[in-house]
Write a structure and sequence with these properties.
Structural class: mainly alpha
Radius of gyration: 16 Å
Number of domains: 1
Order of helices and strands: HHHH
Largest sheet: none
Distance between the termini: 24 Å
Strand content: under 5%
Number of helices: 4
Helix content: over 70%
């Protein structure tokens, strides 16, 4: 039985949102200044904090649902197995590079990068070749 294209893309959006939320929380924790009260917390204990845990889950679900229409529009004529990893790696790269410098602003930056990559895939001439 073939899985519908929209279901695959929605699953990708949700899984990617959780990966990005985890990456953001880890990078944010690693780059805290030593004067911050949460500084001595080890990475093993980052997700023990209920606020971090709940915020990451709620944020991941919200961003996964929010990103689905953009990603679906961009990937509707492409093979997701080829283009989806490009989208995820581009957004992750932005999170890893921007979070140490702009903190929470990296969330807005990730959304801008996501929209930019989606526009790229949506406007490519040879969109079937991946």
């Amino acid at each position: 039985m073939k899985v519908p294209h929209a279901s695959v893309i929605f699953g990708f959006c949700m899984a990617s949102a959780f990966v990005c939320a985890f990456a953001f929380a880890v990078v944010f924790q690693l780059t805290l200044p030593s004067t911050d009260a949460a500084y001595p917390v080890t990475l093993a204990h980052v997700f023990d904090d209920t606020l971090v845990n709940v915020s990451a889950i709620i944020g991941a679900v919200a961003f996964g649902i929010f990103s689905f229409p953009f990603v679906f529009f961009a990937l509707r004529k492409t093979r997701p197995a080829i283009s989806a990893p490009v989208i995820l790696s581009t957004v992750l790269l932005e999170i890893l590079l921007a979070t140490p410098f702009i903190g929470y602003g990296a969330i807005a930056g990730a959304l801008l990068v996501l929209v930019g990559v989606c526009v790229y895939f949506a406007t490519r001439k040879d969109s079937r070749s991946g």
